[in-house]
Amino acid sequence: MKSTLRRTWAEIDLDALEHNYRTLRARIGVGVKFLGVVKADAYGHGSVQVGRKLEKLGADYLAVSSIDEAVELRENGIVLPILILGHTPKDQVKKLIEMHITQAVTCKAKALEYSKEASRIGKNLRVHIKVDTGMSRLGYLCDGEGFENGVDGIVEACRLPGLEAEGIFTHFALSDTDDPHGVEYTKKQFSLFTSVIRETEEKWGQKFALRHCANTGAVANYPETFLDMVRPGLLLYGYGEYAEPLGLKPVMSVRTTVSTIKIYPEGTPISYGGTYVTDKTTRVGVLPIGYADGYLRCLSNKWHMMTEDGAVRQVGRICMDMCMVDLTDCPNVEVGSELEVFGTENSINEMAETAGTIPYEITCAVSKRVPRKYMAGGEVQEEELLLRGL
Predict the structure, then answer these.
(1) Average pLDDT across the chain, whole number
(2) Whether residue 33 lies in the annotated active site
(3) pLDDT tens digits, residue range 194-213?
(4) Which one of 207, 272, 280, 302 is the catalytic residue?
């Protein structure tokens, strides 16, 4: 569906995505595979469009969170291997096999369920075994006294009928911090992971084709963790503290327009609750973007937007569908003028810090009613609105 309104939109820079991919490819070196994380609609960027671009560029794998996300990619013509990082019900095993989708196995119960279903239809399900080395979330627990039991459980899963154990992986919890505790913790996780791999392969009598653990923080900070494949998320999209030092570019920008301009006298409360009161005669612009579009309400009276005259302060509480900005010092900004909410001129990293969150949440929050415009060479290549067509 296409939007008929020039209201608020997100621009996805496919040239920046390509630049980031090639830059990261050069960083990881020859012989290391590249997995593009495109879960949650590629963190709001559009999983199909990002997946197609990564496939064209030569990526080796994609990762999603659920079977629905994987099926969306397949039904849109993407043939790259796809790894589901999250849970898939056992009654979906047949679909996983038919659509050549790889499933993470996180515990004995899941391994047994998947094995039984795959064996029932007489085919193999490709799986990657997940190891919990310190994230304390999903995966076979192998730390401390549980090491031998964990390894034995993984070996058992690898030998189950109907399962083809292609890979093994873990997830770092503190690789994106450079304090001594974070460094020590990450190195401990990596050491445990490699020990699990070594012991498992010895007992199993086979080697995993793909061993992977390097997320964004590890790709930036721990080259020794690259192993057979890396999984950059935040870096691929050009955000976070490591993006600029590595020469990466932000892929998404959100833009809006001025819908109305009004002049208010000194002492006028603006928006719900009157949390902002004008301290002089103030030229106020009303923008058609609010928290229903993903502009977080916690940013009220704290953020700024970029205009052709420079930065303007957002004032008053952010509403569901709109917000207000102070245009007093911006005479060239008129009704219809464009403003950048975040992007190349207005850092999403700073915005996330102001909101007390991470860039991921900002991009994921951009709602389905905000059209995505996919740009290449400065031109719109494709436009998508995720609202259901009438």
Answers:
(1) 96
(2) no
(3) 999 999 999 999 999 999 99
(4) 272
Helices (H), 60-179: 67-75, 93-98, 108-120, 147-159
Distance CA 192, CA 187 (A): 9
DSSP states along 69-97: HHHHHHHTT--S-EEE-S---GGGHHHHH
CA–CA separation, 127 and 104 (whole Å): 6
Instruction: Note the pLDDT tens digit of each residue in 104-130.
Output: 999 999 999 999 999 999 999 999 999
* Residues 252, 268 contacting (CB under 8 angstroms): no
User: How many whole angstroms separate alpha carbon 304 and alpha carbon 324?
Assistant: 10
The distance of Cα 352 from the centroid of its chain, to the nearest Å, equals 14
Under DSSP, the state recorded for 276 is E
Query: Which one is catalytic: 39, 53, 249, 373?
Result: 39
pTM of the model as a whole:
0.94
Enter the tokens of residue 284. 């106020």
What is the spatial distance between Cα 130 and Cα 195, in angstroms, rounded to a whole number?
14
Edge-to-edge strands, sheet with 338-342: 260-264, 282-287, 323-326, 310-315, 304-307, 338-342, 252-257, 8-13, 372-376, 379-384
- Residue 264's Cβ-side half-sphere holds a number of Cα atoms within 13 Å equal to 21
Taking alpha carbons only, the member of 163, 82, 75 closest to residue 121 is 163
CA–CA separation, 341 and 95 (whole Å): 41
Q: Distance from CA of residue 282 to its chain's centroid?
A: 39
Largest CA distance in the chain: 79
Model confidence at 6, in pLDDT bands (50, 70, 90)? Answer: confident
56 catalytic per annotation:
no
- Yes or no: say if 290 and 322 are a contact pair by the CB < 8 Å rule: yes
Q: What does R_g of the chain's alpha carbons equal in angstroms? A: 24
For the record, the structure tokens of 94 come out as 């047949």
Phi, psi for 94 (deg, rounded to 5): -60, -45
Cα 20 to Cα 45: distance, rounded to the nearest angstrom: 14
pLDDT of res. 390:
42
